[in-house]
Specification:
With 114 residues, the protein is of the alpha+beta class. The chain has helices spanning 3-9, 11-24, 61-68, and strands spanning 26-32, 38-48, 51-55, 71-77, 85-91, 93-95, 111-113.
Length: 114
């Protein structure tokens, strides 16, 4: 997801969302299983260069869910605030032009973002 564009359209929501996402570096991602039921999985959050990326193991169940059906829900949580939630719906898009942050190029895995 292009976080810069999102922030331009809703500054207050983007600031709050970024605060929640960066507070733990983790979120919950909801994907759709092959039988149509939901799958909720923890996921690493990467906010770099104006992009929101989700780090996951290549060929993990959630990655395979997203390859088949790119719809997803991201839930961020922080125990620090009294209203500790932010939820977003989006579509996954394979990221092929970058490598993971701080990963040597020879060990980089494909990522999903958006």
């Amino acid at each position: 997801m292009n976080w810069t564009e999102f922030a331009e359209s809703g500054r207050q929501l983007a600031v709050r969302g970024e605060e929640l996402l960066r507070s733990s570096g983790l979120c919950l991602v909801g994907t759709i299983r092959t039988d149509g039921s939901p799958r909720i999985s923890p996921c690493e959050v990467i906010l770099e260069e104006g992009e929101l990326m989700l780090g996951m193991m290549w060929q993990s169940r959630k990655a395979m869910d997203l390859r088949r059906d790119p719809r997803l829900v991201v839930h961020a949580h922080s125990a620090i605030r009294k209203d500790p939630r932010a939820i977003s719906r989006s579509m996954a898009e394979p990221e092929r032009s970058r490598t993971m942050v701080k990963t040597p190029p020879d060990r980089a895995l494909p990522t999903c973002s958006r």
